[in-house]
Write a structure and sequence with these properties.
52 residues; mainly alpha; rod-shaped
Amino acid sequence: MLTKTVVVYVSFWKRILTLFFIYVFCVSVSAQVSVNMKEEWYRRSLQNDYVT
């Protein structure tokens, strides 16, 4: 009985941790993408200012 409870508990925590890591990964990737987009936009705006 106790071992079954432990197994359920461990699998539950594995699922939570997996979801957490996926969430952190997605957040870091989206942050990196937004930073890259900002840098690109900044570079383009500088080029536009330079052209005009």
